[in-house]
Each structure stands twice: as structure tokens, then as C-alpha cells.
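Figure-free illustration: sequence to structure, shown twice.
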Amino acid sequence: MADLNKVFLIGNLTRDPECRYTPKGTPVGDLSLAINSSYRSQDGQVKDEVCFVEVVIWGRQAETCKEYLQKGSLIFVEGRLQMEQWETKEGEKRSRMRVRADRIQFLGKAKGSSQPTPVESSSTKTDTAFSPPEEPQAGDEEVPF
């Protein structure tokens, strides 16, 4: 049986992105995401629920997030779950589950801008926006097969 570890999230940042660097100079970013949802309880009342998720990003994406995002920014995260384990100075074992982002897409407005930004932060993509192909017009002479 095959394994799958894939996460897709859309939410708002709960704080400004942080960016630090490893001793070798690789950028590492930390984001905190709030994902809101609502549901109707058995007694008919609408209940709101918030899920907080920690996200880590590596490379140029971390710098881009630090530059263009701020608390409250709406983002789409594509990544995978990652378990981290460590031991404190007192010898206690700790662990946490975070999302390791492979791709971040900005869905809201850029810092200091009133216009939405179509910027996508990805190490493999350079397109900044998607344009759907033109629909063929009636009377076009080419047959599309």
C-alpha cells in the first residue's frame, strides 16, 4: 500500500512571518495560521471553531513571505506534516507536529497595498498569475482535434 502525506490549507496569519538563517545561510521561515470553520450543533446553534497550525518554509519562499506578508494575510499552503522531537535542557522529551510548506500562494493584499496580489511564492514556478486560454469564437476555421 502506498503512503500519502499531503496537506492543503487556506487561512489567515496570526502574526507577522519570521525569517532566520541556518549557519550555512539557508533561509527558514515560521508562520502561524488560523483556519476558521463553523458548524451547526445538535441544538441548531451555529458554532465557530478555529484551528491554529504552525508552518515552516525553507529557502527563497521564507524571504518572500517575510517581505510580502503580515498578520492577517490570507494564504494557501501546500505541504506535508512533519513531526519534530527534541529534549529540553531539563531532560524532558518534547514533540510537535507542523506543516512543512512546499508551496505558498498569497491570496490577499500585499503590504501597504489596496490591490490584491496574485504573487505565488514557489521555488519552481515563476508565473505570477494564471490566465485561462481564450475560448474559441463561433466561425473559427480551425477544428480543435
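We now fold a second protein in the same way, so the two outputs can be compared directly.
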Amino acid sequence: MTIDRFVMAFAGTVILISLLLGYYHAPHWHWLTAFVGFNLLQSAFTGFCPLAIILKKFGVTPGQAFG
């Protein structure tokens, strides 16, 4: 699995979990959803993604977006 696919899978998982927590527990969890969405948006324009940097240090294969 490349860094790009891992980042997308991780972001999607965090979004779904935070939406469920926001619905069943407390609406404040939706701030986590907003944070992940903002991070995805800014990384699309800047190419800066903290998770991609961490994964690269652990030796995960880079993809097209986060080389």
C-alpha cells in the first residue's frame, strides 16, 4: 500500500468514526471531522501532510502525491 492510499484510508476512517461519535455521543466530535477535511484540502494545494511525513520515515512506499 502506498502512502497516498494509506492517507486516504486513514482520513476516511477517522471521518467516519468522528461522525459516528458526533451522532451517538457528543456533537463536538464533528470538529475532528472538520479538522481532517481541512487537512485534506490544504494538503491538496500545498503537498504538506504530517501523516505522509511520518509514514515516509517508517519506510512506506511513496505514491504520486506524497513523494
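Summary for the second example: The chain has a mean pLDDT of 94.
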